Amino acid sequence: MKRLFSLALIIFFIFSSGLIAQNQTEIKYLSGTDKDNTAEWDFYCSDGMQSGKWAKIGVPSCWELQGFGYYNYGRDFKISKPYHKEYGLYKHTFQVPKDWKNREVKIVFEGVMTDAEVKINGKLAGAIHQGAFYEFKYAISKLLKYGTENLLEVKVNKWSANESINFAERNTDFWIFGGIYRPVYLEVMPKEHIERVAIDAQADGKITAEVYTDSKKAASANVELQDLKGNKVQDLDATVNKQEDKLTLIAKASNIKTWNAEKPNLYQLQIDLLDKKGNKLHSISKRIGFRTVEIRESDGIYVNGKQIKFKGVNRHSFYPESGRTTSKALSIEHVKMIKDMNMNAVRMSHYPPDVHFLDVCDSLGLFVLDELCTWHTPYLDTKVGKKLIKELVVRDVNHPSILIWDNGNETGWNLELDDEFAKWDIQKREVIHPWNSFNKINTMHYPDYYMFAFDAPVKDKIYFPTEFLHGLYDGGHGAGLDDYWKQIWNMPLATGGFLWGFADEGVVRTDKGGIIDVDGNHAPDGIVGPYGEKEGSYFTIKEVWSPIYIADRYIREDFSGIFNVENRYHFTNLNECTMTAQWVNFNGPEGNTDVKILSESQVELPALSPGAQGNFSVNKPTNWKSADALFLKAIDMHGMEIFTWTYPVKTPKQINSDKVSYSKDGTIETVSSEELITVSTGDSEFKFSAKTGLLKEVKKNGRLIPLKDGPIMLGSKSKFETVKVNTLDDMVEIIGLFNKRKKYYDWKDNNEMTQDFFIWTVYPNGILDLKVELRNQKIVEDYMGITFSFPEEEVKGMKWLGDGPYRVWRNRMKGNQFKVWENDYNNTITGESGWVYPEFKGFFSSINWVKLLGKKKNGFTVYCHSDLTFLRMLTPEQPAEPMRGATVAEFPKGDISFVKNIPAMGTKFMPATASGPQGSAKNYFGNVDEPLVFELTFEF
Asked: Where's the Glycoside hydrolase family 2 catalytic domain (predicted)?
């Protein structure tokens, strides 16, 4: 009996399991799942590379990246057109189990560029699908052969037969590809099944779900709220309203956690479709987040009742080696980088992304603007536009991360389509026109700082630039952001904005030996490079958009230990974050780059609610003044670094006080001629011009060190007057004097100079000091400082104590940290070539000392004893097409400079002067009675 009972139990469980499986949706992939997991199909390309013959191709993929067809960027739409007739043929065989015969089978294509004709066993699966960025499916149960092999054939035309689609999707400012570039799979469901579900889960717990079905047996439905592991959270007592094609379910969940970008709480909603007897026909689960979105006229955009300041970026779905074919792993990587920059929003540019990207935005927390694919031309074919909006919204409707729909981009909107979104969106999210004023919102792109949000005809609208600070090359992004954000944060109707764009869209050219091609200045717009290489703006954005805003300050002798702080979170109290304070010392030029921690303590952050201001105190150990710097590192509630702020404690003169030895031992000799003043010590020889006092040559142990032709005075309006030589027992001084000018008054001691001058001091042990005083107008546009020559071809790298590791511009000073850094030489042109970051050449701030590494051991170390001095290291090469302001063309003479002012960087569409006060070309240096002082020590 026992054996019979056990056998019966086994049979029961097998039968029950079968029933459960029959009630579920099953997915079988015919392609691979992503760019890193493809399946091999047969493929024929009509034109271009490897055309006219059958071959193999990985699916999903863009066929150009697999070595087929033609590459083309959208902007060459009207120039050359060999790819207009380009098409690909795909063949793939697959097996279908016999037991699927009693089920509903659909074939799903997540994305095909651009027209797709699908056949199963030689018969059309349905109408040709047009539109490159949309999911589509066909019911193919009647076309299949069960229990045996089936043939799938797909013809893909890269260019659509519908000219409206071509102008909207192909005549664009992004790369154009062909192919089945997103996964293909079979969706297998019970005959009586749920077609789709649209869910509205509000912040108060109210759930409305539209369950679409054409089942005649469907009578009702059960709803259960679960956690993401499928564990029941609570039963939901839903009212059910049955209509012809759907069931509308209304329920109320209690004690739920809401979804937002800071705390992305998610649940799972299980819906069971039932017949009249209560038998389960079909069961599906959908991820949901409880949140409410409101756009309040002349007010702002609210999520769960909180007004949001959007810190966003535009992102293409793109990878250099696979084009538009991506992966969930890449989506996770990108979202983590976006959030690491302290952003809270992302705009889809300029088409719906992969489903997994939206899934990751849901789970990690980003507000999303989802966009219909048009660039500057709308879908003028309203019929096809309506079809594509349906496909967009039906696929994406349940993502809590999506707050707004974009009806195209930059005049690419067909006004007849605006109302179509609401037909398919149960949440009735609002529609915007990026680059236009429409309904409640003004989304003007690339505003000049000085007209920002002051558009007189629409000044009562919410200001929401869906593109600003265009980041061509090294311009934009972080350059100017500090000024813009101060204005955005403090303007009631400004609700944030979106930088352009996330990554350089550089594609691997299989037809050009694998080079990375950004199509001139069309695609190098990123904060990061094609493979995610971080530019300097990445860290500027991270600091400017930190939700913990610490007011700028310096540490001086009377430092109180108190910092003023503002909580710029929307849903998080400040004390949910943690902060560590470290008092540190640095090694010198011969040591490593590690810091020595003198003291470490936890900072007690105040319990500030979102938007509140207050302060916190840092513990000051008894030896705090012996530290070189203070580090403050903030960590959010998810364990991610918000930012690490660094503050010098000592002046450069104090930091360098123990690093230079002025030994008076040894001999020192001076020989002068009409042309040169030669000063020799035991192992060093220095030659100076007898006419200008400039350093002309340095030798150390007979080896030439090619530092010369300095100090050339930058910004001096005085004429050079004379050279004087003072020969003392233990040093030699070479003094360069400039003529006195009328506006300098001789009110000082007679022993003090009141004109521009420099003094070289040579010591017996080969140490070389330089002191410079430079006077000028109060307001200047020229560089103010000194400069030298050193051949670039001799440079191997540099190590320095200062802000780093990235170069800075006047309007992009934030984001670096003060410590010891070491960079190898590179010749990267930001966004155009190399993508080796940090860039080696440019301006570096808060320089204390720098060790220049020469290729032939012919470098040197220079200690800068003057406060707030910039190092200029060589001259960056210029990109080919910088447009209006995305480069700095004028650098000081020579190669290595020490200056008190540096230029700002503009953007693709505007010079730096139009991007805010920090972009001004003018510098205020105060009273001319206080000269600019440079004190340097050279060690060879």
From this structure: 293-418
Say whether 906 sits in a helix, a strand or coil.
coil
Structural tokens at position 597: 């921690």
Q: What phi and psi values does residue 912 have, to the nearest 5 degrees? A: -60, -35
pLDDT value for 903: 97
* CA–CA dist 816, 631 (Å, integer): 12
Domain boundaries, the chain: 22-190, 203-288, 293-529, 548-648, 670-746+753-774, 787-939
Among residues 174, 178, 170, 177, which one has the least CA distance to residue 77? 170
d(CA 327, CA 32): 11
Q: What is the mean pLDDT of residues 341-370?
A: 98
Q: How many CB atoms lie within 10 A of CB 122?
A: 8
Q: Degrees (nearest 5) of the Cα angle 479, 485, 489?
A: 175
From residue 513, alpha-carbon distances to 65, 86, 834 in Å are: 12, 22, 16
pLDDT of 7 reads: 38
Predicted pLDDT of residue 14: 37
- At 765-821, the pLDDT tens digits run 999 999 999 987 778 889 999 999 999 999 999 999 999 999 999 999 999 999 999
Nearest CA to 522 out of 497, 500, 499 is that of: 500
- Ranges of beta strands (E only) in 533-673 are 548-550, 562-567, 578-586, 595-603, 613-617, 629-635, 641-648, 669-672
* Cis ω before 903 (30° cut-off from 0): no
Predicted confidence at residue 452, as pLDDT, reads 80
Q: For residues 895 and 927, what is the distance between their CA atoms, to the nearest angstrom?
A: 29
Q: Are 830 and 478 in contact (CB under 8 A)?
A: no
pLDDT at 78: 65
Mean pLDDT of 108-117: 98
Burial-class residue 836 by CB neighbours within 10 Å (0-12, 13-18, 19+): middle
Cα–Cα distance for residue pair 347/496, rounded to 1 Å:
12
Specify burial of residue 654 (Cβ count, 10 A radius: 0-12, 13-18, 19+).
middle
Q: State the chain's mean pLDDT as an integer.
A: 94
Half-sphere exposure of 233 (CA within 13 A, CB side): 20
Compute CA distances 243 → 210, 214, 229, 354, whole Å: 10, 10, 32, 32
Closest by alpha carbon to 347, among 321, 317, 325? 317
Q: Domain 548-648: which CATH class?
A: mainly beta
- The predicted pLDDT at position 77 comes to 74
Helix (H, G, I), strand (E, B) or coil at 659: coil
Segment (H or E) for 705: strand 703-705
Residue with tokens 């070479």: 734
Q: What pLDDT does residue 75 have?
A: 83
Quote the tokens at residue 488.
Answer: 């955005």
Which CATH number is 670-746+753-774 given?
A: 2.70.98.10
3-state secondary structure of 69: strand
Which class is 293-529 in CATH? alpha beta
Tokens of 122: 């030689």
- CATH match for 22-190 among 2.60.120.260, 1.20.120.1200, 3.30.470.20, 3.40.190.10: 2.60.120.260
Tell me the fold of 203-288.
Immunoglobulin-like (2.60.40)
CA distance 610 to 303: 14
Q: How far apart are CA 286 and CA 568, in angstroms?
A: 32
* Prediction pTM value: 0.95
Residues 603-661: tens digit of each pLDDT: 999 999 999 999 999 999 999 999 999 999 999 999 999 999 999 999 999 999 999 99
- Mean pLDDT calculated for residue range 292-296: 98
Q: Do domains 203-288 and 548-648 have the same CATH topology?
A: yes
pLDDT at position 741: 67
Burial of 369 (0-12, 13-18, 19+ CB in 10 A): buried
Q: Which backbone phi and psi does 749 adopt, to 5 degrees? A: -55, 150
Q: Give the pLDDT of residue 278.
A: 95
